[in-house]
Amino acid sequence: MRRTDVVVIGAGHAGLAMSHVLSARGIEHVVVERGRVAERWQSERWDSLRLLTPNWCARLPGWHYRGSDPDGFMTMAETTRHLEGYARSFGAPVRTGVTVRSVARSADAWRVVTDRGATCARAVVVATGHCDIAYVPEMARALSSDIHQISPSAYRNPGTLPDGGVLVVGASASGVQIADELRAAGREVTLAAGRHVRLPRRYRGRDIVWWMDRTGILSDAIEQMPDPEAARRQPSLQLVGDPARERLDLGTLAAAGVRILGRACAAEGRGMYFSGDLAETAAAAERKLIRLRRRIDDFVDAAGFGAEAGEPEPYAPVALHAAPLALDLRADGISTVIWATGFRRRYPWLELAALDASGELRHRGGISPLAGLYAIGLRFQRRRNSSFIDGAGGDAEALACHIAGHLDAVTHIAI
Q1: Structure confidence at residue 415 as a pLDDT band (50, 70, 90)
Q2: Ramachandran region of residue 234, left (φ > 0), alpha (ψ -120 to 50) or beta?
Q3: Is 62 left (phi over 0), alpha (psi -120 to 50) or beta?
Q4: What is the mean pLDDT of residues 385-400?
Q5: Which is nearest to 176 in space by CA: 40, 334, 285, 287?
Q6: What pTM does this model have?
Q7: Chain-centre distance of CA 401, in angstroms?
């Protein structure tokens, strides 16, 4: 059986950031990855997808964007190369093609069993990320078998879908981007919108992410949130990494011909049923947007940026038409449903004591109640940007400090 101080599970951006920080501290470790470095960026993203954040924001410990377009948005191939280059830059001890079978405590250590053998370690870091398994609601089972159903993880481009209209369920980043791409390809598109976060791509002459970084919004701590669990459930931002830096939200989609409905709430056969809360949901997103604009405006005034920043753009609320509460999908020409309804985490290989009743990891800032078990890359784990590439470094530093203390306390591995 192999022995090491730390096993990191997952070689995406979070796992690599963790590895870099552990290496800098001289902590022996290994990173195990079921596929390749940055596997999900390579195999579970659609063809045209780009990062939502500008290239300058792809910062990791000891690494930054080295291209010629810092204000652009990396494609998935470019993102993969960025992360592969990062792993090579410090000789990350990554073992690819290794599938974890079980992770369980063994006296003062953790026993990690894979399809390539077992490793005993004093600590384990789960770096499988927030976007683990695409979530498809139970109602999908009730749809007729002649309706094609997929998740964003399986979607590649409009040409891979059957002919006909498409219903996209979900209005976060994936849902609005896929709906827009299908509409541009000439498809008839219907979007069922639940909770969402509306943002402009640019505000006062700058990318919105620049403002969120400069004002400290991305660094907001989970402890500052009035409802931490609600903050962690917040949908991803309605943004698109478009080189043209166009805004994308329910209003722009509706103006382009996408039919906007309320939240999908039930299905039976070829019928889909929707809630009547579209106006309320859109209004909630508007209120969040207004608060964000006000926070940026207050920052501009307080920091004396008035001469540098542009004037606030006129505020334009989204205008939506009355929406039907039910559809006969086939009669309406819809052949495909794309469930852009978020992700869930699954840890079938992790001992049950590490999980809560819903199957999520129990942790506080990435530190499990079980000594020696940690997590990184989860949404709002410590700060608003914890699941972003740019947020992994700060969380890795904090966890590495705790891990070092744990290793000092557990000075040997008992088998």
Answers
A1: very low
A2: beta
A3: left
A4: 97
A5: 285
A6: 0.95
A7: 25
Domain borders along the chain are: 2-132+345-409, 134-339
H/E segment holding residue 32: strand 29-32
Q: How many CA atoms, within 13 angstroms, populate the side-chain half-sphere of residue 43?
A: 9
User: What tokens does 81 get?
Assistant: 């190369």
* Amino acid identity at 320: L
| Mean per-residue pLDDT over the chain, rounded | 95
Which architecture, in CATH terms, is 2-132+345-409? Answer: 3-Layer(bba) Sandwich (3.50)
Q: Collapsing DSSP states into helix, strand and coil, what is residue 306?
A: coil
CA distance 381 to 383: 6
Please compute Rg for the chain using Cα positions: 22
Cα angle value 34/40/43 (rounded, 5°): 100
Paired strand residues for 191? 168, 260
Q: Which long-range contacts link 72-79 to residues 24+ away (Cβ below 8 Å)? A: 72/243, 73/241, 73/242, 73/243, 74/50, 74/241, 75/49, 75/50, 76/41, 76/42, 76/45, 76/49, 76/50, 79/38, 79/41, 79/51
pLDDT tens digit string along 192-225?
999 999 999 999 999 999 999 999 999 999 999 9
- Pairing assessment for the beta strands 2-9 and 117-126 based on DSSP bridges: parallel
Whether the Cβ atoms of residue 239 and residue 248 lie closer than 8 Å to each other: yes
The count of residues in the chain is 415
Q: Shortest CA distance to 204 belongs to which of 305, 277, 302?
A: 305
